[in-house]
Amino acid sequence: MTSCGKNRPSSCLVAGYVLSRKHVRDGRELQQRKMISLKSRGVSCLVQVASNTFFKNSLQNVYNDLRRNFSKVGFIGCGNMGNPMVQNLMKKGHKVSVFDVKKSCVADLQKAGATGCSSVSEVVADADVVLTMLPANKHVLDTYTMKGGILESVKKGAYLIDSSTVDPSVSQTLAPLAKEKGATYLDGPVSGGTIGAEAGTLTFMIGGEEEAMKKVEPLLLCMGSRVVYCGKHGMGLVAKIANNMLLGISMLGVSEAMNLGIKLGMDPKTLMGILNTSTGRCWSSEMYNPVPGLLPHVPSSNDYKGGFGVALIAKDLGIAQSVAIQSGVPIPMGAQAHQMYKIMELKDMGNKDLAVAYQYLKCDK
């Protein structure tokens, strides 16, 4: 939380939300009323009202405003990423309606307090904001454009945020179609993986109109810790594709390095510690190490279940390769990583987390 300084009289930042003059004024008036009340009771000395009274009151105003503006939130795609994102929205007081083609995903969130829906149109009909988290281009395009889909059901003035990792052309196709319906579309893919989704520390990379991003930013901060404006429609996806290409490459690098050291007799935990305090340090080693048993609560310590599947990273690297070819940009390491994950997919590892690359490189299978 960042406090308000004298050099910022018009607004201040509280938990990632810019407070207006009205919020500031309301907080100060509350303090003044409490001081007057104390004096009227004969308190002779100056009593300092709790220093966080202003912020507490201001934050309550923030959440009240936010619920007023986005009282109904729809979420489509409630798998490994979508489920914890919905959970965090509900923790912040939002009422969320959900839909997923897997009924079990809907049932899990219903138990947690969400409203389960049986169709896309049911989720979208009265929603002020609709978020989608879907696997690939086809799923996003179909969900938006099919009969009974988002564009057919959306109400005027609604915001549509797609957090799927897809080709930038998907965003550039859907944005004008949403505008025709009186809705505002943003591409808003995320980084942080399932760990970030569960912790509420995702980074949202936004492509579209900057003013629209500012409107939905408080909502996104219920699920993440950072919202970054990347530029026009599709640019959020460009950032995401570049990030995921690097993730795919780095996971293979860490898997190779760990496998080499362990095969040569190095203690796995000691090796990980050295990597994480040396120039080889990276997220794939420090936060998501592919060797089983070295870190708790990561897929490698749970038989590579959940997390970010091999099939999905292969799909994302395929998108990177496609747009690179179209733009004439060489990505030799990205292309090689793409082939590695495709081979793993063919070896029935597609549903395993990408960290299973370590097991593939061990040649145990």
From TrEMBL:
> Which InterPro entries does this chain map to?
6-PGluconate_DH-like_C_sf (IPR008927), 6PGD_dom2 (IPR013328), 6PGDH_NADP-bd (IPR006115), HIBADH (IPR011548), HIBADH-like_NADP-bd (IPR029154), NAD(P)-bd_dom_sf (IPR036291)
Q: Name one GO cellular component term.
A: mitochondrion
- Limits of the 6-phosphogluconate dehydrogenase NADP-binding domain: 72-231
Q: In which pathway does it act?
A: Amino-acid degradation; L-valine degradation
Q: Which reaction does it catalyse?
A: 3-hydroxy-2-methylpropanoate + NAD(+) = 2-methyl-3-oxopropanoate + NADH + H(+)
**The protein's name:** 3-hydroxyisobutyrate dehydrogenase
Reading the lineage from the top rank, the first entry is Eukaryota
Is NAD tagged as a keyword? yes
- Please state which protein family the record places this protein in: Belongs to the HIBADH-related family. 3-hydroxyisobutyrate dehydrogenase subfamily.
Question: What processes in GO biological process is this protein linked to?
Answer: L-valine catabolic process
Q: According to the UniProt record, what class of enzyme is this?
A: oxidoreductase
E.C. numbers: 1.1.1.31
Annotated ranges, domain 3-hydroxyisobutyrate dehydrogenase-like NAD-binding: 234-360
Q: Which organism is it from?
A: Frankliniella fusca
Q: Which GO terms describe its molecular function?
A: 3-hydroxyisobutyrate dehydrogenase activity; NAD binding; NADP binding
Keyword annotations for this protein, in alphabetical order, are: Branched-chain amino acid catabolism, NAD, Oxidoreductase
